Structures are given as C-alpha cells and as structure tokens.
Amino acid sequence: MSSYTPPVAKKVPTERTHHGDTVIDEYAWLSDKEDPDTTAYLEAENDFLKQETAHLSDLQEQVFQEIKGRTQETDLSVPSRKGAWWYFTRTEEGKQYAVSCRVPADSDAPPEITPGARLDREQVILDGNELAGDSAFFSVGTSSVSPDGTMLAYSTDYKGDERFTLRFKNLETGELLPDEITDIFYGGAWSADGSTFFYTRVDDAWRPFQVYRHTLGTQEDVLVYEEGDERYWVGIGLTRSERYLVLGAGSKITSEVRILDASDPTGEFRVVRPRTTGVEYGVEHADDFFYVLHNENAENFELATAPLDDPGTWTPLIPHRADTRLLEIDAFSDHAVVHFRRDGLTGLRVLPYGSAEPDWRVRAEAAERNAYEIDFPEPLYDVGPAGNPEFTTTRLRLAYTSMVTPPSVYDYELDTHELILLKQRPVLGGYTPADYEQFREWATAADGTKIPISIVKRKDTGKPAPTVLYGYGSYETSIDPGFSIPRLSLLDRGFIFAVAHVRGGGEMGRHWYEDGKLTRKRNTFTDFVDAARHLKASGWSERIIARGGSAGGLLMGAVTNLAPEEFAGVVAEVPFVDALNTILDPSLPLTVIEWDEWGDPLHNPDVYAYMKSYTPYENVDGRPYPPILAITSLNDTRVLYHEPAKWIARLRATASGGPFLLKTEMGAGHGGRSGRYDAWREEAFALSWIIERGTS
C-alpha cells in the first residue's frame, strides 16, 4: 500500500437537539452540494482513492477483461408476443446501451434469433445508444407501446437524478411528436385506444404524489389524482387484459387502489376499498372478475376474488398459510399464476380454469382445486413470471436462475406441462456449471432464530477460504440465489461467495421482515454478524469481506461498529449510513415515507434513542476498523452523497485501522454509472479491491 496523506475534512460544529439530546455534527457542511468546499473535498477524496489504489490498476484491468470476455456482447433477448408483434432487445459489441426492437408476429412460436443477425422485417423502436449520444449518463425511465402497437411513450434522464423527460414516437412513421413533458417519474400507462397517456410527478421530497393525464396533441395536461398524505406514493398501470387502468397509492404498510375503464380515460377512478392502516392489497383483472391479493388478517397474504361491480367485496380463494408468502398473482384468459415464497425459495402455482363454466366463481374455485406447482431440480434457485404481456395464451414465460445456473428463459406449456428452454444467458470462456457447487447453511442467532445462508464456490476450492459475505435486510426485499458473471472472477481465484438472508428481508415470509424493522431493526445487524461467525466456526471461511449497498450499506456500517474484528474489509455502496439525521429531516427525499420502515425519531423519543443506538455515523469509535471502501454518486436522490462522505470523514478522524476510502461518481445517480462497459469497470474496481483484501 502507498503512504499518501488522506484528505482531512474541516470540522464545522453544527448543534442539534432532539428530545433533550444535544448532538454535535462537525461534518454537516458536506450536505451543501453547491458549496465549493464540498466539491473540492469530494474531488480530493477521489484523488486520494486513485493514489491508494493505483497499484491495483493491472488487476482491475484483468478483472474487467474477464467480465467482458465472459459476456456475449452482441446478443438478443427472447422475443415476447404482444398483439401483432414480437418484442425484444439487442445489444451490440462496443455499444453501451440496449436497442429495443420488434418484428411482426406470423405465428405463436417465438422467431428464431441469432446474435448479430437482423431478423426479417425488424423494426427499431428505441436505440439507447443513439439517444445517449456523448452524454456521460443516460437512463430510460419508461418505454411503453400503446395497445394498438402504433405509438411509443418513452422517458429519458441524462443526469442520474431520476427526473425524466417524456416523449412520444409514432412507430408507423418513425415521427417524433412535438409533445414533450419534463420532470416526470418512472412508469406510466396508456388508455385502451392509445389516445391518452397517464404519468406521475414527484414532490420536493422525491415522492411520486400526482397522476396526470396527457392527451396526444394537446398542451394542457389534467391532474387526475394527488396524494396528500406524505407517507404515501402513487403509481399507475394498465391491466394485462387492457380493460382497466389501475391507480395505486401506498405507504410501507397500507394500500389503496382505484380503477377506471381504460376505454374511458376522462372518466372518474373509483376506489376498490378505502385504505385501512396495515392492510395492503393489489388488484388483478381476470376477464369477468378480479383477483385481490391482500393481507387483511393474513400476515403472509391470501388470494381472494371479487365481482367487477363490487371489487371491495372479497371472497377467500387461497387462504393464508404460515409457511407460504404469496407474492403476486398474474391473471390470463384461461388460467392464473401465483408467485410465492416458501422455505426461503420462490415458486409458481398454476390455477387452470379448465372449462367454459359461465359462473366465474365456479371457474375460480375449480381452478384452485386443480392447481399445481411447477417443480425445479436444484436445491437453491430463483424463479418468477417474466414477459407475459398477452392475456390470451397457452404458454407461461418464466425466468429461472441459481447460483451456478445462468439466467434462463423458459416457456411452460400449460396443456402438456412441458418446460421449454428458450435461452440461457451465454457465459463465454468455457464456463462449466458442474465445476461449481451451491449450499444452504443455517446460522443460529442469539435469540435462537435460524438464519439461512446461501453459498457458492468452485468444487476445487478448499476450506476455509476467503469469503465475500453479502447482505441487505430491509423493505422485505429478498436477495435470492442468483447467477453473476462478475462473481466468477472471485470464485475462480479461490473465493467463496455467500449471502446472509438476514431479518428485515423477505426470504422467510412476512414475519422475517417484521422481525427486522422499526424497533427490531438490530436483528438485521446481529444476524449478519452471527452469519459471519458461523462461516468461520464451521470451517467455511477465514478472511471475510462484507458487501452491501443502499439499505445494505446501512447494514455494512452497523456491523462494522458491532464487530469490526470479524471483517477483513467492507464495501459499502451508496450506503445509508447517516440514517438518524436523514430520518429526522422531513424535507429530505423519502424521509416521511420511510417512517413506517424505521420509525419516526422526530416525534417519538423512544425511536430516536433506538436509532441512535445503531446508526453507523453516530456510533463510530476509536477501535481498529477494517479497511472500508465507500462508493457513492453525487446525483443520487435516494441515499444522498453526503452520508458516506460524512461517515468516511468521521472514521478517519476517530477510528484506527483502515484505510477508509471514498469514491464519488460526480455524474451519476443511485445505480452508479449507466453504460454497461462503465458499469463493468466500476465492478472490476470493487472486485480488485476485494481480491486484495481477501488474499493479503
């Protein structure tokens, strides 16, 4: 390692008092993005990072070439049928972004695809490379074709701040309409006739709170819904049947859905069922009735049916099960598919209607009696519906992967129960799945809870081995067993990769989430530490490098405070490490929405004290800490750049050990750099740092 002098952040003591507790924050000045001193400090940190990691440049380039060399750069996705067209995307060697295309549908079978070859009558819908031009950042927020296939609505972001500009393209003529709408959010939905497009806007706190209606060719858009409760955000979509527009408002714990006949875009949305605190529900149209997936008196959710003229009256169909979390329902003309989670793995349950019985209640009940689950052979895997835009179909498109099986696309033939492999992501360079193996371990937490750990390694890697332990553990988000091309650069160097499925995620059902939020949040952090200790005690691991991002970055900071001696290094990406100060400030993006996840420390002294006990920035002390690499982006609107900047400054001033490094992307957002080659280089940088930590 080099001996460059790290930047020293100036200290400007800022005092705040909450619930009688006075705290001095000497680095609060870093939150002023417009202050030249802030920019100068971030640039100085980037310069220091380059100096400290200059010796890794050859390894970084080697890893980048490995990622690039294993990736089929010129490739096509499996086409998905929608109306008269097959839609797909292609990537081309040397180009950063994907190109969206379509070809006419001459049959029910997907067209034969050959990477690098154009299909007959292929039409380019949207070329990300052409739109990006020379911009350092580019992202598409929505890309939606009208139901009749003639118009495209798409939105673009050139800064990474997730404020998009909406445009419309006539797909028959290639003409770009003069309609242009700025500062919109992700997503949107067409009316049935394609004359009208609905979109959302965000408020100053980056909360999507308004839904607007835009009629093509007009200039004055109409506000159709505004959510006044700062805990709720809104979104809008069109059902697969194209019969209903669905406008959803939701907090972290409560839902309210409105529906509108999609053929009457200027009509009034009607409420399915008024919001009741703690009740979440979603609505799916199934021809002459609705499916409703809800958690009223059903922690893991149950599936109900409801009549079209009275969607708020729910009749149970699939009752609640303590061992099965129902995730979503997809309805089609002749069947439905339930996506679920059980024993830490995802699954699919098919409900075939099987008859033309005119009474929808009888059809739905018969479908559930005749329901079956699709079997998969591996001990660890992740499966879910994928690319099923057609309402009338005899096939189910699904996506499948595991820690050793590359992402695979299947069609499941409903009539014959045949599983047809359409494509498996190519892994170049001689990848052989049989050379790798995956395992499920169980760590025991201090309270006796069994914590699942997913593990993958090369079969010829001995134990113990250097290990990357990944974690997230918030928002009921599950880190399911999946494949990664960049990860092979670790596994082939003798590393083990493991995921600690800690509480706060959703891997083991809704209770797993409830046991890792609010005033039980510390379970998330202690679970991760217990998982690390289990891997060492059971002989799997020696040097453990912890890695996590966003809310998983909070996990990284918290476990480093709890047990710094357990980790040989920590990678924290866009880390939520100044959580208490952020959640105390309702003017910041997403803060009020987040109170249902973390608690409200502004008004509740018990929540304040609890959060202060674990938030990383507040709890840095003088003990030896492992080397830490924090990665952030200047334009991130979710976890603001100043959180890791302040954290690293305090670590450097207070703790021993390290080194503590900060990398700030000066022109990107929450997801980092946007182009695929740029993203590969960023990953190669992180992996080269990890490799050194694990082997030095």
Automatic annotation (TrEMBL):
Pfam families: Peptidase_S9, Peptidase_S9_N
Source superkingdom: Bacteria
Keyword flag Magnesium: no
Domain Peptidase S9A N-terminal residues, every copy: 6-425
GO biological process: proteolysis
UniProt cross-references to InterPro entries, sorted A to Z: AB_hydrolase_fold, Pept_S9A_N, Peptidase_S9_cat, Peptidase_S9A, Serine_Peptidase_S9A
Keywords assigned by UniProt, alphabetized: Hydrolase, Protease, Serine protease
Molecular function per GO: serine-type endopeptidase activity
Domain Peptidase S9 prolyl oligopeptidase catalytic: 483-691
PANTHER family: PROLYL ENDOPEPTIDASE-LIKE (PTHR11757:SF19), PROTEASE FAMILY S9A OLIGOPEPTIDASE (PTHR11757)
Family membership noted in the UniProt record: Belongs to the peptidase S9A family.
The protein's name in its UniProt record: S9 family peptidase
Organism for this UniProt entry: Nonomuraea zeae
Classification of source organism: Bacteria, Bacillati, Actinomycetota, Actinomycetes, Streptosporangiales
